[in-house]
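In response to a reviewer's request, we include the raw inputs and outputs for one of the modeled complexes. The two entities were modeled together in a single run.
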Amino acid sequence: MFGSADRWVVIGAVLVALLLAVYPLPLDWRWGRPAFLLLLVIYWSLIVPGRTSLTLVWCLGLVQDLITGTPLGQHALGMVIVTYICLQSYQRVCNYGLWQQACWVFVLVGISQLTANWVYTMSGGNAPGLYFLLPAFTSALLWPFCYRLLEHLRHRFAVS
Amino acid sequence: MRAQLGTVATPFYWVTNIPQRLEDWGQDTFRSRANLQAENEALRTELLIHQRRLQQMAALAAENVRLRRLLNSSDMLQDKVLISELIGISPDPLTHTVMIDRGRRDGVYRGQAVLDAFGLMGQVVEVHSNSSRVLLITDSSHALPVQVNRNGVRAIAEGTGNLNQLRLRHVSNTTDIRAGDVLVSSGLGGRYPVGYPVAQVEEVVRDPGQSFATVIASPKARLDRSRHVLLVFGNEDGDN
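The model returned the following structure tokens for the whole complex.
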């Protein structure tokens, strides 16, 4: 999918996103943990939509499920749906300003959180209130920084 | 299959645990002599107190065995334990699980009970080759059979999804249970060993309009603080 040097940059970014996804936080802060891997996948599908593979995204989601101990497929489902929407809309979204994109990211991460919440309630839990949407909010706030950082990395390592 | 694949999770938890290990190392390395002496003194005193209790305990245990023989019931066995360290906590606020650094290689099995120094913490739900995932007793999908230490009343303690709260199910309004009672594991489910402290009753609300009393208890184990846990062997015929 990528050249061999590029591949290591991408794998490195994925590993860092997964580490951030399990980094221990105090209980109350855990509600607002941004969806780092999803942000990476959204960036990816905006920049190189032609080379974003839904199968690969599904596999990434499965890896995240394994690592975080959620039911297999929970993150995968959310990520595939979000990536599909991204692939349908990237032509419009890549012309947006950063903060406009952030609003769009809020909606996308919100969708993935909704599916996660749906899976959670299907497996017998009951989630209190709308707390599950907090990650969408924090992810949207983080998006401009995330975008700049990834752009910087991309140019630095000439990943295309 | 999940147990095999789950092994990929271990390195991530190891890496995210590094800051904590550095902090522990720093605290162990850079300490003043006076500090160490004070701690040594405190530990010595504590040891003395525990040894005195243990002296009595040996006699009591022997007596217990004799009495049990008289009643023709089986002997209480000493449980074998394995010490383990916490390496990670669940990133999801809705599930209360922790990762520990012992796995299949150390003989850990599914359903094994996990304790800390103060009480029962939970059970192993997923075993990887050198780590395992422990479901805490406060997870909202967890329940365990307990009994009141004072009078032997049995009940089911259910997790509430709140780290310092358990709820007792189906306790009738007339049951003799009050705030301050200690709940110990009753061993009835065959999953947990008998007689480990689980929780202390905080509040009992008896509303005549309701069919059951609301009993709230707080776990004895320090679920959000303990870093060293004990794995108890002995109920291996659970599901593997």
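As requested, we also summarize the result in words. Residues 33-70 of chain B form the longest helix (38 residues). Chain B touches chain A at residues 2, 5-6, 8-9, 12-13, 15-17, 20, 88-95, 97, 126, 133, 140-141, 161, 163, 224 (CB under 8 Å).
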